[in-house]
Each structure stands twice: as structure tokens, then as C-alpha cells.
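Minutes, structural biology subgroup

Action item carried over from last meeting: produce the C-alpha cell record for Sulfatase-like hydrolase/transferase (Salmonirosea aquatica). EB confirmed the sequence was re-checked against the source entry. Recorded below for completeness.
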Amino acid sequence: MKRVVSFSIGFLFVLSLLAIQLAPKPTAKPNIIVIFMDDMGYGDLGVYGATEYQTPNLDRMASEGIRFTNFMAAQAVCSASRAALLTGCYPNRIGITGALFPNAGKGLNQQETTIAELLKGQGYATGMFGKWHLGDTKEFLPLQHGFDEYVGLPYSNDMWAVDYDGKPVGENDWRKKAFPLLPLLSGNDTLRAITTLDEQAELTGIYTEKAVNFIKKHKKDPFFLYLPHSMPHVPIAASPRFKGKSKQGTYGDVVMELDWSVGEILKALKENGIDDNTLVVFTSDNGPWLNYGNHAGSTGGLREGKGVSTEGGQREPCIVRWPGVAPAGTICNQLASNIDLLPTFAAITNAKLPDHKIDGVSILPLFKGDNQATPRKIFYYYYRRNNLEAVRRGDWKLVLPHEGRSYEGQQPGNDGYPGKAPENTPYPMALYDLRRDPGERYDVQATYPTIVEVLQKIAEEARQDLGDDITKRPGHNVREAGLTAKNK
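Output recorded by EB:
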């Protein structure tokens, strides 16, 4: 009897060892990279319909991952969109509006939680190389918001005392008084000033080199890399290696160099043996600045562009590559936004969400290829300080009466010079079925009055929560931006 018991215990022990060996080992936390363009339009990549230049690296990234067709920037302007991406909040919830000027005395509040801070709490190394634009005084810079390393510009590359032709402005020009020298920062300190278009042409290469070195340095650690390029925001300039390479002039050259940058990132992942455990997200902050003509991108047929609460202003290219998780060569048509990245990364890494209210939802099911999932059903289109200009539910979009920018009917500029883009164009109430009419040309509110009623209720919920300057409604759940001591 003892022999039988002994044999049984030994047999069970062997089985348990085999089970341990055969059981799937816990997957290491994935590295996370966000590559963020500036003013890139929905139609600016080969896989989204671009012509007369090639984007082979991004096209390959799409073939190896998921291409989103309904991915929205939270607002159609620089600082607001960046605040949204990093905090998971509509920017008006946290007091960030428009594009912050140098010496604004304002920035991202220290009480907000960024993706970098969230992942740093999970043991991630954090690095950022590129345009910040969430406050330019020390207390607001990236190192004070969770990043271990930073090299880049504190705001947009057009915020300098240089004219459209690349020559310094005159002493009486308003830009001479408004803009200090454009600084390239390292951490909290200035490395050097950017003073010419030739020096602007170096930026894509500088950011890329720093990002690749960061990957090499942290290949044995989980890391979060944020790479927000300064271009193709004007003024645009390509390095000598890419100058004159496209059939679409300087803009095509610049996008080809940005595509090269993405290729360098993907190559670094391969060479350092971490490609299989790295999630890469590529998208843009808002649509193209269309009044710059041949120095602006394409919306791919969507209406209007940067600075407008239309699809051309806010619908962005988005590609997600995550080997072994995101199914290769797939297209996701579900609604999603850059405010959804923070909660998605939290879900991936088991990080605790911030205690304060955020607006993003985890779209991890979409990253895994579940195209039946609908984690985001509703989206608010806010602009200016706190104007609710439209709401969306699924494919239905209700434009609320407002005045705004319009490029239509205006002669665009050329070769770096802007054309007109009036800011007081009336936008009447209109209902669009974006599934059939992504260009927002056919108002169907008379045909679908019930849909209008549903969307008006959603608009009222937004006003109660976030407020609405158009209807003079204060928000109940909004927070203040950070202010310097002299502006408090």
C-alpha cells in the first residue's frame, strides 16, 4: 500500500513539473512607442491615398498591423491635442486650449497624470524627443511631467522671428516682439537656438537619432518612447538627403523623411531583439493647415482642415503595430480617439487609472483585432476656449450652430506663404451620416429628426459636464491649467 501511495505521489510530482514547464510563461510588459506628427492630414500616407511620394515604412507598418479609419484627434489644434493624448482628457476639461505661445505663463497642471507618469509607476523608462507645446517654463517641461529624458522644441517651429522666406523679420514686425529665439532643449536647458530653415531641416534627424539611442539604452527594460515630430507643421524643410526626392515638392520630401524616421525606429527594434514585444502607435495631432497650399498636406477628401471641427480637422491617420497581438493587415473602422491611448496603455500594463475624471476609454479590444467591439460610442467636438461645435454617436454627427475657420473658397498660399482662412464663417446646424458622407456635404436632419433629438441630448450632457461657451454654460467637472506664480 505504501508503494502505491509513494508511486502516486511521485507520479503527481512529475506531472506538476511538466505542467509548470509547459504552461505559458508570463509575457514581459511591452515597450510602448507613440509617434506623433504635427499637422499631417488623413490623406498624407501611401496607405491612406497619398500620391507623388512614397511612404514605404508606414505602409509596411500598416501591412503588419492595424490601420484605423475613424481615429480622432481630441481637438484640431496643437497644444490642446497634445494635452489630450498625454492625459486621456478632453483638453477643455483640463484648461488647455489653442496653441500656447512662448512665455504664456501657462501649461499642463502638475496635478494631471500623463502617460509617462502612469508608465513610470509601472517601472518603465520614459523618453521624449520632439515638440512639447504644453508650457515652456521649467515647471511645465517634460522632465516635470514624468519623462526621464527630453530633447526637442518647447513649442511650434513657426514661433520664431523669421519670415516666410526664411529671413529674419524686421525690427517692427510683431513676431520680433512676441517670439524669443527658438530653443532646442535638452532636459530643462537650451542646447542651441534654431535660427534658419537649414537648421529646421536637421530636426527630424536629431529626434530620430535620440530616439534610436534611447531604444538601444533601454532594450533590457520596459520603456515608453514619445516621438512628437515638429513637422510637417510649417515652416517645412527636408535634410539634403531627402531634398528634391519627391514629385510633390518640399512637402513630399518632408513626409518621405518622416517615413524614413519611422523606418529607423522599426529597424532599431529589430536590431535590438525587442521587435516582438513592442507596441508602436503612429498618428497626428490635427489635420493639415490648408491655407499654406503646397506646403500643407491632404485630408483625403474630408472637409476643411486644421482649426476646424470637421473630419478634415480632426480625423487622423492612425496605425498600430504590435506583433503577435494586433492582427496584421487589418482595418479598423470603429470610432476611437487619441484620448483613448492612456487608458489603453493602463489596461495593457495593469496600471491604475488616475483618481480624477478622464474621458478616454480602453480600446485594447480594437488593438487585438476585435472589430465588433465598440468601446467608444460618443465623441465631442470642442474648439476655441470651450465651444461645443459638434457631437457624434457612431456614424452620426450633429454640427451645432457656431462660427469658425473655413478654407473653402479661399485662394491658398504657396511656397511657405499662407493664404486667407477667415475665422468667422457661420456653420449652421446640420446632421451628417459619416458612413455615407465622410465629406460632410449632405445635411440629412430633415430626414432623421429622431437622430437629431438623440444627438441634442448628448450635446446637453456634454454641456453639463464640460460646459459650452456658445450657450454660456459653465462646466461642472472642469479643472484649471497650470499657471506660473505671477499668473496665479
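Discussion: The CA atoms of residues 168 and 408 lie 31 Å apart.
Next step: EB to file the record with the rest of the batch.
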